[in-house]
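Worked example

This section walks through a single chain of length 156. The input is the sequence exactly as stored; nothing has been trimmed or padded.
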Amino acid sequence: MVHVALLVIHIATGTIGLLLGPPAMRQDSRRFRSAERSTGVISAWYRAMVLLVCLSATGLVIERRADLWWLVPVSALTYGLAVLAKVSARRRYRAWIHGYVHGQGGSYIALVTALIVVALVVDGPVSGPAELIPWLAPTMVGTVLIEVWRRRLSAA
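Given that input, the structure is written out below as tokens.
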């Protein structure tokens, strides 16, 4: 029963997080262009979903898959990236745009990677050396997109 509850929470919050990520980034970009110093409401909800998906992942690992212990620190780092985005936007230290963009974008890349790996590797057809592609492709594509976004925000 606990496993099913954790799985439902994990899937629901992961899905909501994936849906909220792009609108949160767009809303925040607009807010920053108009000189606001905080992230928007959508970003707050996005961070909450990232926290819940990370906590539920930790619960699932503890409850059923202790062999995947290494996902617990990955979850903590994923949420840490989302927090980095918020703190960077609020404090506006030197190069704060880097912190915001890489934090928000990095946490989103982690969600996308998790979705693709589960779909293609854990429950899907990809095996052997080809398993590296679902693990690395979101980071390779996402990093380029993050850099484009960072440059646009910096120019504005």
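What to look for: The chain has five helices and no strands.
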